[in-house]
Amino acid sequence: MVTAMTADVPAARQIAEAVADPELPMLTLADLGILRDVTSENGHIVVTITPTYSGCPALREIARDLQYRLGQAGFAGAAVRTQIAPAWTSDWITAEGRRKLHAAGIAPPGAAPARTPPRGPVPLNLTTAPRDRVACPRCGSLDTVQTAAFGATACKALLRCRSCDEPFEYVKEF
Amino acid sequence: MTDDEFTAYQALADETDDHRWAFGTGFTDPLEGIDTTVPDGINAAALAAYCLMLGDDALIYSHRLQQWMTRLPELEEETAVANIALDLLGQARMLLARAGRAEGAVLAGAGRGEDQLAFFRPEHEFRNVRLAEHADADFAQLAGRLLIFSTWRLALFTRLRDSADPVLAAIAAKGAKELAYHRDYAAQWVVRLGDGTELSHGRMQAALDALWPLVDELFSTGTVVTGLPGVAADPAGLRAEFDDVLAAVLAAATLDLPDTAPLAQVAGKSGRDGVHTEALGYVLAELQSVARADPDATW
Questions:
Q1: How confident is the model at residue A57 (pLDDT cuts 50, 70, 90)?
Q2: Which residue in chain B is spatially nearest to A157 when comparing CA positions?
Q3: Cβ pair B188:A174 closer than 8 A
Q4: pLDDT tens, B17-42?
Q5: Which end of chain B is flanked by fewer CB atoms within 10 Å, N or C?
Q6: Nearest to residue B79, comparing CAs of A68, A65, A148?
């Protein structure tokens, strides 16, 4: 049994970073950028994660998974906390995460711009096209169209490539 | 338990007591680990009342959207509306939990939990605006009502990002990003239908005309808001931004701004005072029936 002394925090962090996201299982929590902190308090590991969307149903499964994986490694009684500020942004998906998404046939998001600026009204978007052309993850063509603004999970939209005719998912800039 | 035994079922079921797993046991506190101390100088009772208003808006609206599931014209709209309903449910859970914690600060004990607030309050204790409980008569009303609601709520949440209550500010900052997507989705449909065929144009205009009586109520300032300076955002101050966005969308959609009169209040009271249309009773009957049939169930 490992007691979570400060020295163990890097080991616990490694385990937490490697836990897979249940909805995008090709990504780890580190790839997705939702792991905020790993610390130790009173001999127990505390992992802080941030939800992608307010209603994200995966959050609880992620917490369970973290506790299970840490428990397997001897970190009994690990606590998982949520942190909602600052809000998650798709910009926190790492370069490695983007590479894995692309390899899985999912177009990674572009830079999340001033869609929700810190001050003042949010600009309205009346066109169905994403602001920047999204490259087809299969053939690389930029001749793609959005077929649905929302996909099978909150973080994705559905697009279709007009060059190779294949539909594909796209992680929204958020 | 080995790795192989750690299945999706296991994750759904409480380790110690899994026979009620079909309820979806063990939903964690949406504010788990977040410091919910009410800052000095903020009236905790008013903060609880305010978060209840904003939480009820999202809870009731989300349920109305859920009722559209399997009835929408295409699969893409099913996923879109389901996602929007889920976002609003997430906002509702955090806001109701915030209301409960603030209530606890007043009572110097534990306030009500999110489930207690959602499932065991009678109709007159709900504080949502009457627009949230409206039953959409057709897809044009769904699009029009979502445009009105998300435009108003986005304007509100962008302001609440600066709230003196850090929890409310964080919930708003997160929600604003979601609401921007909801508003774009609704606006794009209003434009497609309004600037579409003669039939779709007529139905979109009729939908807006039917919904417009519910708009004025969104911008009325109540005593809860005036009791929370620096914490709440005055709804009256949202009207100009709302009007600008609606004007831009309606112009693109070749639709006219409705001039139907506001829905009457009852002795000066409306949704924020717990005075609702008959539509809310039907929503609550459905929303609360399972929880009330088995009050001891673990959710």
A1: confident
A2: B80
A3: no
A4: 443 344 444 456 788 878 899 999 99
A5: N
A6: A148
> Which CATH number is correct for B42-293, 1.10.510.10, 1.20.1260.10, 1.10.3470.10, 3.40.50.970?
1.20.1260.10
Question: Please, which residues 104-163 of chain A have a Cβ atom closer than 8 Å to chain B?
Answer: 115-116, 118, 120-122, 124-128, 147-154, 158
Beta-carbon contacts below 8 Å between A and B = 133
Count CB atoms within 10 A of the CB of residue B197.
9
CA atoms B210, B216, B217, B219: torsion sign: positive
Residue type, A63: A
**With an 8 Å Cβ cutoff, are B30 and A57 in contact?**
no
SS3 A76: coil
Strand arrangement of the beta sheet that strand A35-41 belongs to: A35-41, A44-49, A79-82
Give B-chain residues touching A116 at CB under 8 angstroms: 158, 173, 176-177, 180
Q: Are B196 and B207 in contact (CB under 8 A)?
A: no
Strands A167-171 vs A106-107: parallel, antiparallel or unpaired: parallel
Residue B114 has pLDDT above 60, yes or no: yes
Q: Considering CB atoms only, which of B28, B76, B174 is closest to A60?
A: B28
* C-alpha span between B284 and B299 (Å, rounded): 18
Sign of CA dihedral A125, A129, A130, A131: negative
Q: Give the distance from residue A83's alpha carbon to the nearest chain B alpha carbon, in angstroms.
A: 6
Q: Are A53 and B90 in contact (CB under 8 A)?
A: yes
With b meaning 16 or more CB within 10 Å and e meaning fewer, what string describes B155-193?
Answer: bbbbbbbebebebbbbbbbbbbbbbbbbbbbbbbbbbeb
Q: What share of chain B is helix, strand, coil (3-state, %, to 5)?
A: 65, 0, 35
Per-residue pLDDT at B20: 39
Chain A residues 14-43 with CB within 8 Å of chain B: none
Q: What is the ipTM of this complex?
A: 0.88
Residue A147's CB is within 10 A of a number of other CB atoms, namely: 16
- Is residue A16 within 8 Å of A35, Cβ to Cβ? yes
Categorize the per-residue pLDDT at A116 as very low, low, confident or very high, splitting at 50, 70 and 90.
low
Element (H, E) at B75: helix B75-107
Other beta carbons within 10 angstroms of residue A88's beta carbon come to 23
